[in-house]
Design goal:
Two copies of one chain form a homodimer. Chain A has 14 helices and eleven strands. With 407 residues, chain A is of the alpha/beta class. A seven-stranded mixed beta sheet of chain A has the order 3-2-1-4-5-10-11, with helices on both faces. Chain A has a four-stranded parallel beta sheet with strand order 7-8-6-9, sandwiched between helices.
Chain lengths: 407, 407
């Protein structure tokens, strides 16, 4: 049975391994004789409406492998979220180009776009197979154990906090690092994996799954400084007060909203600066510094988890296989089948509506009850995903020299 | 001739390879029979005054190698800058512990501390050998071709801008990345090495060696957006107006000064946010994002140049050798002896006063005349220092598909 032409596109925020999924789907699709051609659309659904296509059959396997190892959507991305009218435009173009299968690599917004599009195709009685390939550094897709893109971003966050902890230990003070993640704290929680020794930071971890109060925060910081003589803090950009209002929005002079109605939380250092000011005003700590990890955590060239790389590739390959096997529309989902040393995962095709537009947040079992922290269960969950080659910090071990003057 | 006891300490901001220098000096010193003991002082000169010493003879070679590969001062650091009275206190302790050689790993402030201390020792007729081992991510030490610590931080900046460029190409807009470097633009300039294709960012690079004006900046951004449809900008935290006032200080509500009288420029996102606001107010670009690279660029666990690693180690080893050879006080300095493919460098012992308290900025030949950019000479200067294993970005190359509907 002919699949006709295959079209693939990438949506939403880039990840370090999003091109692994692209290349996986392209290579496997190209290998099926019933596939007439494999097109790529530039800048997601925007590129479809504009008929901005590339014929990926013309790419050498060698160049595709180089693309796979390059972070950030090689086809470009978009923040457009199509409504019914937009989908009708998309549809016109798919029909004109005889597209039979559409792979959309993206997060929950992109999967929702696919869901609408699949409905449109069904209504128009057009044989279109819509398959969602998961990616997001936020790790907030339902059904999935975790999401391609998250482990590499988590590895960046671990390397950042491990380094910052060493820096803060050398020159003690208070440090606030603001991490991406609007509703789900998975990426901020990854900072816990930066700890090795008992007194290592981050000493406090604030997730968007729990209400945040400045008073509680100041009390936590004072207690940590009292105990460690310093304090490293990991904060999600999405922290909010008990009414649900984001702390970042509370102080942003101008609130910028994107097409999805989301308040802009990244690309500004305001939240870190506010928290630092609060610490300076309410404690006697002089050395208070704040960083916002910003775009580096999702695009840094040279920080990737090899487990993530492999799984992202497989997600694309499996998508092409599911399309070939004729299992209909769906979202490729990732399920853990082995833990710890025996970590293993497999892919299934789940109904689009189970993933589309939904957001998964951290389970209660991953969040510490009595302190701003994560649990051992979360550490066990994340560790195998970081893959091999995680650098490690070491300390001097020799004995102190006896004092002569200040006995 | 006995050197007595050797003392080593680390000062100033940490780097990714500062412990290579520590371990190099310790291992070589331990091998000389005329060295009675090798002590380390915790937190630089502060630890000397407090007699807070560790007996580094008790460290195994195995643990020292693990320490060498760990970023950030293993002995801890300090921002204290001793005056004559402080040096007399240091001196009392050195005499009590029969310290004959003092190695201080640090930047221009640390070398100035050594210079004062050497004078104090000479005045007191005490046989103390003071040797400065260079380190700074700012690359601003005089006499040196470059400084251990700089290449690894530069590698981080390159990886960051290479990734951000890909991100910005996938989701076009304006991006401002603020890089460390108060007076010297070397680290910001490193962003130029992130470019591979003609239209790659950073498209604009602002260095503290040139006056900055908001009007000129806005005109540059508009021109770049007109040409590329997007714009990636690298900005030094130290940019200042024509009166010399730092742009960051102009807008900081509270200016915090450290013990050296330096205005705090790092650890706040204010400069990036100001520049983004200026772009939003004066152009029609909607997607404007700013990041401040902050402490990640000097401490990130997992980003190191192998050339930097090797040279930092050699700087420590050579310091121990210079002390053993009895060449007197001085600063270990790094000199380039081969270029490009044949890159090579050697170490010399230079007079302390040639380095102490002085600041080197970028030479005119490294700064483009007619645009906010660096020259090819700078790219040639930095490239060999980044070492092996620099990741590279690739692009799709196949042909576009002909339009059917929108012909």
């Amino acid at each position: 049975m002919s699949q006709g032409k295959v079209l693939i596109a990438q949506g939403g925020g880039p990840t370090a391994v999003i091109n692994q999924s692209l290349v996986g789907a392209v290579m496997v699709s190209r290998g099926f004789p019933e596939v007439d051609a494999v097109y790529g659309a530039f800048h997601g659904v925007q590129g479809i409406v504009n008929e901005d296509f590339i014929d990926l059959g013309g790419e050498t396997a060698e160049n595709l492998e180089l693309i796979a190892a390059t972070p950030c959507s090689a086809l470009g991305s978009t923040r457009d979220k199509p409504d019914v009218k937009y989908c009708q435009e998309i549809f016109k173009v798919l029909r004109a180009h005889a597209i039979g299968t559409f792979f959309y690599i993206g997060g929950n917004d992109s999967s929702d776009t696919l869901r609408i599009l699949a409905e449109e195709a069904a209504n128009a009685d057009y044989a279109l197979r819509c398959i969602h390939i998961p990616k997001t550094i936020d790790n907030d897709l339902t059904v999935n154990d975790h999401t391609p893109g998250y482990p590499s971003a988590a590895k960046f966050v671990v390397g950042a906090f491990a380094g910052v902890n060493l820096d803060n230990r050398a020159l003690p003070g208070v440090y606030v690092g603001v991490v991406m993640g609007r509703h789900a704290g998975f990426l901020t929680a990854a900072s816990a994996l930066a700890r090795k020794y008992d007194d290592d930071g981050p000493h406090l971890i604030y997730l968007p799954e729990r209400d945040f109060s400045i008073d509680g925060f100041i009390a936590d910081v004072k207690a940590a400084v009292g105990k460690f003589g310093r304090c490293v803090i990991a904060v999600s950009e999405g922290i909010h007060d008990e009414t649900g209002e984001p702390m970042a929005a509370k102080l942003a002079q101008e609130v910028e909203k994107d097409a999805h109605g989301n308040v802009q939380l990244s690309g500004t250092g305001a939240l870190a600066d506010l928290l630092c000011a609060a610490i300076r005003d309410n404690t006697d700590m002089k050395r208070v510094r704040g960083d916002t990890f910003g775009y580096l955590q999702r695009s840094f060239l040279g920080c990737v988890s090899d487990v993530d790389q492999r799984e992202a590739r497989q997600a694309g390959e499996r998508a092409a296989q599911f399309a070939h096997d004729g299992e209909g529309d769906g979202s490729v989902t990732l399920h853990r089948t082995g833990d710890g040393e025996n970590y293993a995962a497999e892919f299934r095709l789940s109904p689009l509506q189970d993933v589309a537009g939904k957001t998964k947040v951290m389970a209660d079992e991953f969040i510490a009850k009595d302190s701003p922290d994560v649990t051992g269960a979360f550490v066990d969950y994340l560790r195998p995903l970081l893959g091999s080659g995680m650098p490690e910090a070491f300390r001097l071990e020799a004995e102190r020299v006896g004092k002569i003057l200040n006995k």
